[in-house]
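MODEL INPUT / OUTPUT PAIR
PAIR INDEX: 1
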Amino acid sequence: MPYRGVIFDLYGTLIDGWDLSQSRDRTAELSAALRAPLEPFQELMERTYTERATAALGDLPAMLLELCRRIGHSPAPADLERAARLRVEQFRSVLSQPREETPSLLATLRDRGLRVGVISDSSSETPEIWPTLGWAAPIETALFSWTEKLRKPAPELYRKALVRLGLQAAEALYIGDGGSHELSGAEACGLRALRICHHPGDPEAHLQFDPDLAWHGTEIGTLTEALGVIS
């Protein structure tokens, strides 16, 4: 059966996202805006990813307030508002810079009549900013863990993306960097998975939660290599 569509991961795949050092720098900026002690705030941010990415802590202001509460800090309302604005802008900056090959690849897939989707583990900032991203226009449907209240590799995410795109599992490729056990999750749902390795040999080059270390399959070095697989 020929491929009729592609479902992409977002961070580490269509965009670079942050590496570990950049992520910690952004957290330090957020901590300073909240006037919260850095070390406990940093540690809490790193171990509450699933809660933040599945809406368990609520929207952005509620999430920041809860994190502060857990470390015994009470931010002033003005500090909380400033920190929420800062966090959105931090994400807007990274989301507005797709990888160099991403816009042309997405346009090529659209022009060839392939269906295109995204599944991304992300906190509330990403779905808020997503509709403003011009480069993402060829993407027909995007599922975010915060909106769906589920993280990859939940089968419901893959199945919902397929339904929205009008595809059978065997008709779709899944392409991701391997975080969140997304590749094995895609294959368990019947999709073929490809791992994108933008920075081979440099595990610190981008931030990755729950890497799919046990997965072994086809790897590509650039997104445009996926066109060869589709063909």
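PAIR INDEX: 2
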Amino acid sequence: MTRTVVVLTAGLTVPSSTRMLGDQLADAVGAAVGARGEAVTFEHVEVRELAQDLASFMTSGGVATPRLTAVREQVSSADGLIAVTPVFSASFSGLFKMFIDALDRDALNAMPVLVAATAGSARHSLVLDHAMRPLFSHLLAVVLPTGVFAATEDFGDPRLEDRIHRAAAELANAVVAVGDQHVAGFAPDPSRRRRTSGNDLAPVGDFADLLRGHSG
């Protein structure tokens, strides 16, 4: 069985350190899943490319464009998520939060999520615990114990590599456990609510029926 992991990155430049960290995490997860005799595919979502779609969604009362509709389905149907944001004003970026706000309330139920962030200074490292972890816990995701923060000077540091591989091993365990509840370290709750993308809207009744019985 091949698992699917979405790599969500919110870098604003090309190339970006945020995408670089996301790629390094994906490579490490792929190696860790492969070492367990399993297969995984990665689907990359660059939030920057959805900026206009997100602005339209926010200003139209929640009407998603076809491209945003497809990405919402992509995220909610994944087996795991790697979420990486640059740090702006000591928190996740506004564009990153817009994307999360565009997801359905039940899109991430019990989904294993590896949180990561990049910044120019190590002073922002607490963003993982003060912003990212509470955000995904609110959405009922399973936030993995190890988050990965990378300041500019951390790239190429063996200590960052060690943390990447530790977090990747945790996500690999969790992703494999999606189809096998006996894998150590992760046991999905069978009573959890079903994940939904929010794209399936309830049918709208006939307008004449809605007016029937009303006068004036």
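PAIR 2 NOTE: The beta strands are 2-9, 39-46, 80-88, 91-92, 112-119, 142-143, 148-151.
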